[in-house]
Structure formats: C-alpha cells, structure tokens
C-alpha cells in the first residue's frame, strides 16, 4: 500500500479501517500473500489505526534514506 490518507474532516469515522480492509480484500483476491506499508515512527495516530486492523510491525526490514 503506497499512500493512505483520509481528509481531516473525515478522520475518526472508521474510513481508514474500511480502506485498509478493501485493500486487503483486493490483494487477497489477486493472489497476494501480504499487504505491506510503512509509516513514520512519529505518526502515532496512523500506528494506532494499523495496530487496530491487526497489522504486525515487521522486524524483517530496515528503511534507509540517503539525503541529497
């Protein structure tokens, strides 16, 4: 999943949960074994959404950034 954004005026209504559920349904129907995404360590609100939907934090991947 690349970007998940819910407009501020619609936040807190379960829309992110519905969008994640739809992404999961679509990817499952197309043969994917998992759905992967990232968020900032500072984005606690997003982490709460992802925790609530049952996603597991991965310890298998490290993200690297090269500043230019």
From TrEMBL:
Pfam families: Acetyltransf_1. It comes from the Eukaryota. GO terms for molecular function: acyltransferase activity, transferring groups other than amino-acyl groups. Residues 1-68 form the N-acetyltransferase domain. InterPro entries: Acyl_CoA_acyltransferase, GNAT_dom. Coiled coil: none annotated. This is N-acetyltransferase domain-containing protein. It comes from Rotaria sordida. The lineage of its organism: Eukaryota, Metazoa, Spiralia, Gnathifera, Rotifera.
